[in-house]
Write a structure and sequence with these properties.
The chain is α/β, with parallel strands linked by helices and 341 residues long. The protein folds into 2 domains: 1-68 and 104-241 and 322-341, Alpha-Beta Barrel (TIM Barrel), CATH 3.20.20; 72-103 and 254-314, no CATH class. The protein has helices at 21-29, 43-56, 75-91, 107-117, 130-139, 151-159, 190-200, 214-222, 232-235, 244-252, 275-279, 290-294, 296-305, 328-336, and strands at residues 9-11, 34-37, 61-66, 121-125, 143-148, 164-168, 174-175, 205-208, 227-230, 258-261, 269-272. An 8-stranded parallel sheet has the order 1-9-8-6-5-4-3-2. A 3-stranded antiparallel sheet has the order 7-11-10, with no helix packed on it. α1 runs parallel beside α2. The site of flavin mononucleotide has 29 residues, from β7.
Length: 341
């Protein structure tokens, strides 16, 4: 029996450029489980995108949010960060960077919009929703999924009652989804993490990180995963609306170009190294989400101007494994060949 009676190939939620109705719908319609990374979407937009997904497919999909992070406003740190951005703004012909008016969306309103959108699955990264929240969501008919980068996080999520846990290995593209200790602490590879979580937990485990083709899917299943969740490989499918500069940088990157960086957001995330990650390596930065909001104008302008050196090029270590995935449905089909029914 497959997990939640859903297909075993899930597209990982990806906030940012890949948070597209066309992509999510194409994955679900193509025989996988599409997931919308809604962390950066305004609450009203979550409802709109979900409606667009529904207009394209009646297949189930998921919505993912970042559990809110406690953070200390750090005006001095932020100003120092803005100073680092200023030269790059000038290079792109942008006005000097200023303190953002707002750093993040209202989480409670996002969650309300997510509930109203009625996805099959609601997943969280970067936190444990706790038993009351999980019970309330389950009572409303949602499957609730948490993200763990170490066994202790998986145990906490299980104790909160989640239906399944994503085991996010070190290879994974994008932000580290863990929440215990420092994000720099739990850097456990998928091959090591999945069986440890499978052994420690009674709830099903989804494998994430470094899975890009049928071989990776077969490996994850052999490790005991109940499904896989694939991010990076879906960035290069036809339906993913990636800016050309981002896409070209992913196509050009080598296996050794992957890095974990805090440079764009203040929180560890994996992507292709570029000027920003090199020049801010080791820099003291204010906590997430302050740099994330402050660097947004630079990143958006760089994407428009075709300047990959200033874009957060989130992608995982397995990027070079599968760089010609074709359509979303073709990638789902190719990945599915690695899963034994
Ligand atoms: C561009 C990008 C954005 C991501 N955004 C999110 C997100 O919003 N929420 C989340 O839980 N994980 C996010 N992730 C991590 C994925 O959920 C997943 O763990 C990862 O992509 C799996 O590894 P892979 O990239 O090697 O397939 C993101 C990953 C990428 C590449």
């Amino acid at each position: 029996m497959s997990l939640f009676n859903l297909p075993p190939i899930w597209m990982a939620p990806m906030a940012g450029e890949a948070a597209s109705a066309a992509l999510v719908a194409a994955v679900s319609a193509g025989g996988g489980v599409g997931q919308l990374g809604a962390a950066y979407l305004a609450p009203a937009r979550i409802g709109e995108v979900a409606a667009e997904i529904r207009a394209r497919t009646d297949r189930p999909f998921g919505i993912n949010l970042f559990w809110p992070q406690p953070w200390m406003p750090d005006a001095a740190g932020l100003d120092a960060y803005l100073q680092r951005l200023a030269a790059w703004h000038a290079e792109l012909g942008l006005p000097p960077p200023t303190r953002p008016e707002r750093f993040e969306e209202d989480f409670e309103a996002q969650l309300e919009a997510t509930i109203a959108a009625r996805p099959a699955v609601i997943s969280f990264a970067m936190g444990d929703p706790g038993p009351a929240r999980v019970a309330a969501l389950k009572a409303q008919g949602f499957k609730v999924v948490g993200t763990a980068t170490q066994v202790a996080e998986g145990r906490l999520l299980q104790a909160s009652g989640v239906d399944a846990v994503v085991a996010q290995g070190y290879e994974a593209g994008g932000h580290r989804g863990g929440f215990l200790g420092s994000p720099e602490g739990a850097l456990i590879g998928t091959l090591a993490l999945v069986p440890q979580l499978v052994d420690a937990l009674d709830v099903p485990v989804l494998a994430a990180g470094g899975i890009a083709d049928a071989r990776g899917v077969a490996a994850a299943q052999a490790l005991g995963a109940s499904a896989v969740t694939v991010g990076t490989a879906f960035l290069l499918v036809d339906e993913c609306p990636l800016s050309p500069a981002y896409r070209e940088a992913l196509v050009a990157a080598g296996d050794a170009d992957s890095t974990l960086t805090r440079a764009f957001s203040g929180r560890f995330a994996r992507g292709v190294a570029n000027r920003v990650t090199h020049e801010l390596e080791g820099a003291e930065l204010p906590a997430f989400p302050q740099p994330n909001a402050a660097s947004r104008p630079l990143r958006q302008a760089a994407a428009k101007a075709g300047r990959a050196d200033f874009i957060s090029l989130w992608a995982g270590q397995a990027l070079p494994v599968n760089r010609r995935p074709g359509s979303a449905a073709q990638l789902v089909a190719a990945l599915s060949r690695g899963w034994r029914a």
